[in-house]
């Protein structure tokens, strides 16, 4: 009897302990979610404040330029009055013409003032032109790099065999994340690769296969001999995309690390995104000095990489310089910093992709970018130096992928608005590709 009472007491105590742990876990999860929400709220406030600061600074600079224009115009008029024989030379204007505002005097005009106004507007325009430098530079990037992209795209002919236009490997896909590797791999196919392989964990393989019969899925990433299994396929691959849906389990990250090392020895382009960037932030030497490596971080991932390399906080007011510094520190690895404008640099040159997209930011867009970049990188690296006019092929490839992703986003948003998803964007790859690169 005493034994029975004792066992019931133990069971009651055990149930009570489990209940307390469950409540503790619930509280912990609630606090974690609350902390995450607070973080994103603060980040949004910071970005809004940064936008406001930039707008204010831009307005102030424009006002100062206008004042300088008026001052220089006054100096020019004074010089012309003192030396009437010397005619002022009109400066060439490479930027957009800004029509001056003509003062109004009702139905009458003053001839002397109109002549003075004409002279001042003639001289002030080149000064104000400086405020448009950034936009014109980005537009020149578009105009000069897009033809190079077209040069690297292989023509479709009946003389080729399967696989010649690209065999792409995606390292990623685990139980929690099956969509990301699918998006990357199917985007590679839609852009023009002939074959697309996904090396994922066993749990993810069946799910990814069910998304599309067109992908070759290898359930080996969490196997004891994962590296050996993947290494057998490396001679057949033209480029590698590491990170979509990779997860952060130590065993999988260790396998991915060894696969990157094996791929570097073969000299193929390696695109690293998502959790692959987490791996690089922990061990930058893994990709450092490999100039066919391409990193595609968002702002948070970029911050983590920058601080890992420089051991100081990121200066978010000058992201172009920071991206260039990071690329140089990484040994001229190409960086694609995704954002309002995509910043692309190999440390020597900085490009900006400002191709029109939309305000919709659904999950998976980065996977479309990384998958398509794997194909463009293979095409660009395989092209002759004349095709890229001496520009780093990975820069050309990155510019192509960012432009395509933005165009897909724009077209999908025009159709679906706020309901736009990455699947909608993938359906736009064909028409977006044709519009950008085949027209």
UniProtKB/TrEMBL annotation:
Names of the cofactor(s): Mg(2+)
Q: What PANTHER family is this protein classified in? A: ATP-DEPENDENT (S)-NAD(P)H-HYDRATE DEHYDRATASE (PTHR12592:SF0), ATP-DEPENDENT (S)-NAD(P)H-HYDRATE DEHYDRATASE FAMILY MEMBER (PTHR12592)
Under the heading InterPro entries, the entry gives: CARKD, Ribokinase-like
Q: Which reaction does it catalyse?
A: (6S)-NADHX + ATP = ADP + phosphate + NADH + H(+); (6S)-NADPHX + ATP = ADP + phosphate + NADPH + H(+)
The record's family statement is: Belongs to the NnrD/CARKD family.
Tell me which Gene Ontology terms the entry assigns under biological process.
metabolite repair; nicotinamide nucleotide metabolic process
Say if the entry is tagged with keyword Phosphoprotein: yes
GO molecular function terms here? Answer: ATP binding; ATP-dependent NAD(P)H-hydrate dehydratase activity
Coiled-coil positions: 25-62
User: Which species is listed as the source?
Assistant: Astyanax mexicanus
Q: What's its job?
A: Catalyzes the dehydration of the S-form of NAD(P)HX at the expense of ATP, which is converted to ADP. Together with NAD(P)HX epimerase, which catalyzes the epimerization of the S- and R-forms, the enzyme allows the repair of both epimers of NAD(P)HX, a damaged form of NAD(P)H that is a result of enzymatic or heat-dependent hydration.
Q: What is its EC number?
A: 4.2.1.93
Residues that, per the record, bind (6S)-NADPHX: 245, 298-304, 367
Q: Which UniProt keywords apply?
A: ATP-binding, Coiled coil, Lyase, NAD, NADP, Nucleotide-binding, Phosphoprotein
Q: What is this protein called?
A: ATP-dependent (S)-NAD(P)H-hydrate dehydratase
């Amino acid at each position: 009897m005493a034994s029975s009472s004792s066992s019931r007491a133990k069971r009651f105590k055990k149930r009570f302990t489990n209940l307390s742990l469950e409540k503790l876990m619930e509280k912990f999860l609630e606090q974690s979610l609350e902390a995450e929400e607070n973080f994103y709220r603060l980040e949004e406030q910071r970005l809004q404040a940064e936008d406001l600061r930039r707008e204010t600074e831009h307005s102030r600079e424009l006002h100062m330029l206008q004042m300088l224009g008026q001052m220089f115009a006054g100096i020019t008029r004074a010089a012309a009055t003192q030396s009437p024989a010397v005619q002022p030379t009109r400066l060439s204007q490479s930027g957009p013409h800004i029509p001056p505002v003509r003062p109004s005097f009702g139905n009458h005009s003053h001839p002397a003032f109109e002549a003075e106004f004409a002279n001042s507007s003639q001289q002030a325009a080149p000064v104000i032109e400086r405020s448009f430098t950034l936009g014109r530079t980005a537009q020149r990037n578009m105009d000069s790099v897009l033809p190079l992209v077209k040069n690297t795209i292989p023509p479709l002919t009946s003389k080729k065999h399967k696989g010649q236009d690209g065999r792409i490997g995606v390292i990623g896909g685990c139980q929690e994340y099956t969509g990301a590797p699918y998006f990357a791999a199917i985007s590679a196919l839609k852009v023009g690769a002939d074959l697309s392989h996904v090396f994922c964990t066993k749990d993810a393989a069946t799910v990814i296969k069910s998304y599309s019969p067109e992908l070759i899925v290898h359930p080996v990433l969490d196997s004891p001999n994962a590296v050996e299994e993947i290494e057998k396929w490396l001679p057949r691959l033209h480029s590698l995309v590491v990170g979509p849906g990779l997860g952060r389990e130590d065993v999988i990250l260790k396998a991915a690390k060894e696969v990157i090392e094996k791929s570097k020895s073969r000299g193929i382009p390696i695109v690293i995104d998502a959790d692959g960037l987490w791996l690089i932030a922990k061990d930058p030497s893994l990709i450092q000095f490999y100039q066919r490596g391409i990193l595609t971080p968002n702002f948070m991932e970029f911050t983590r990489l920058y601080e890992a390399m420089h051991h100081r906080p990121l200066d978010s007011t000058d992201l172009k310089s920071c991206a260039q510094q990071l690329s140089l520190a990484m040994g001229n690895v190409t960086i694609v910093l995704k954002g309002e404008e995509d910043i692309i640099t190999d440390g020597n040159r900085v490009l900006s992709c400002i191709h029109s997209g939309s305000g919709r930011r659904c999950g998976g867009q980065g996977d479309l970018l990384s998958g398509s970049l794997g194909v463009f990188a293979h095409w660009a690296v395989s092209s002759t130096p004349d095709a890229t006019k001496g520009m780093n092929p990975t820069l050309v490839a990155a510019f192509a992928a960012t432009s395509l992703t933005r165009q897909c986003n724009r077209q999908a948003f025009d159709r679906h608005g706020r309901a736009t998803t990455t699947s909608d964007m993938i359906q736009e790859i064909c028409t977006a590709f044709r519009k950008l690169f085949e027209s």
